[in-house]
Amino acid sequence: MQYYNSIVDTIGDTPLVKLNKVTKGIKGTILAKVEYFNPGNSVKDRIGIKMIEDAEKAGILRPGGTIIEGTSGNTGMGLALTAIAKGYKCIFTVSDKQSQEKINILRAVGAEVIVCPTNVAPEDPRSYYSVARRLNQEIPNSFYPNQYDNLSNAAAHYETTGPEIWAQTEGKVTHYACGVGTGGTICGAGKYLKEQNPNVVNVGIDTYGSVFKKYKETGVFDENEIYPYLTEGIGEDILPKNVDFSLIDHFIKVTDKDAAVMTRRLAREEGMFVGWSCGSAVYGALEYAREHMKEEDVMVIILPDHGTRYLNKIYNDTWMKDHGFLEARDFATARDIVHSRNISDRLLTVDTVMKVNDAVRLLTKEGISQIPVTDGEQIVGSLTDSKILGQLIEKPEIRDSPVSELMDPPFKFVGLDNTLDVLSSLIDKENKALLVRDELNRVHIITQADLLSAMAG
Ligand SMILES: Cc1ncc(COP(=O)(O)O)c(C=O)c1O
């Protein structure tokens, strides 16, 4: 029989997968190490088990103990899986910029989660670093792994991630790229790779709003570099002990927007449904590769986690638009529906004086359910088949009346730039259709069927 004794035995040995589309025009082979194959769906499973086992060996963590950590979610998941396997309790402090999904996931695996404010200094007693530290002092037999300064973090990657990359590339790896948060992934695996081949180039990906790049390049810890940003998991306002700057050859900063857009491309073009910092890593790594890689070079990029944790953020079009990360032109609009029509198509209308019977015949012949009503050039009302049916059942004699007697108010006009989500929110039982004027001032009708076919693409 082939089985593992515990879920934590499945950690590591994640696959290397070639990037084929987003790498267009770049020389060399670009391989992604897809860490969402770990049981907790992130690279942090590797350090969870290592920090706990090292603490057990050092006698810091004893049976029945509590693990307390400040974590953006992924490390919490990694710690929680090992805690479950070994019977420890977990309390995690997270900052309020973290996605609700990450917090829910931690609670799902039995952890207690305390949400702390993001926009306070790390030494502020309300910060998630400080709260974790205080709980560690207050709760007996508790262990504070502190992924930032606990060198078991980098050691986990030195012992697993690095050797895996070396073996999987058969020693051909020339460049290693990775987002830098605690620094464990870049420095642990990067150290191992440089020991095998000192020419391996380690590229660290940083965010705008983080201190790393400037510190590496100038030795200055510049407070002015620190400001709030949205990307989760990378960049810091502190210098964690796991960051060994001598092991990182170059830093590249990536904006929240470039990272988010690249993450969505990875899902759509490569079939890799990954997390936000994966877009940062790939965007920054490719910027470096475009300038420096040769045909025979092999770059490995770490993709730390899975896309489910960001469904309500970067994978949500409305959220992307609200943050200015997608231009309005990236969305289908009323204009797209109008332009997809035949230029000779004219708006069908009925005049107020037309008999109801004739209007019904027209609707049936044209296979439509609603039509604007005009009085000369003016649109003065609307007719819908359901309304006519109801009226005909009540008063069959109405069939010989003019449509003006049972018409509803005109359909609402919308703008050409209104997006499909806005249009669909305006169409309901009461408002069966919308009207829009094109660039040549011609009026077009938009129905639910038009929206459906536009959404189906
Ligand atoms: C999603 C995500 N990406 C990247 C990283 C950075 O990895 P490291 O902390 O090893 O530098 C983290 C760490 O928190 C993370 O959660």
Automatic annotation (TrEMBL):
> What pathway is this protein said to act in by its record?
Amino-acid biosynthesis; L-cysteine biosynthesis; L-cysteine from L-homocysteine and L-serine: step 1/2
Database matches in CDD domains:
CBS_like
Which Enzyme Commission number(s) are on file for it? 4.2.1.22
What GO molecular function annotations does the UniProt record carry, in alphabetical order? cystathionine beta-synthase activity; transferase activity, transferring alkyl or aryl (other than methyl) groups
Which Gene3D superfamilies does the record associate with it?
3.40.50.1100, CBS-domain (3.10.580.10)
Which Pfam families does the record cross-reference, listed alphabetically? CBS (PF00571), PALP (PF00291)
Q: State whether keyword Disulfide bond applies.
A: no
Q: Give every CBS domain span.
A: 343-401
Give the transmembrane ranges. none
The cofactor(s) it depends on are: pyridoxal 5'-phosphate
Tell me which UniProt keywords the record has, alphabetically.
CBS domain, Lyase, Pyridoxal phosphate
| Biological-process GO terms, alphabetical | cysteine biosynthetic process from serine; cysteine biosynthetic process via cystathionine
Q: Which reaction(s) does the protein catalyse, per the Swiss-Prot or TrEMBL entry? A: L-homocysteine + L-serine = L,L-cystathionine + H2O
GO terms under cellular component: cytoplasm
Signal peptide extent: none
The keyword Repeat belongs to this UniProt entry's keyword annotation: no
What InterPro entries does UniProt report for this protein, alphabetically?
Answer: CBS_dom, CBS_dom_sf, Cys_Synth/Cystath_Beta-Synth, Cysta_beta_synth, P-phosphate_BS, TrpB-like_PALP, TrpB-like_PALP_sf
Q: Which family does it belong to?
A: Belongs to the cysteine synthase/cystathionine beta-synthase family.
Its protein name is: Cystathionine beta-synthase
Source species of the chain: Xanthocytophaga flava
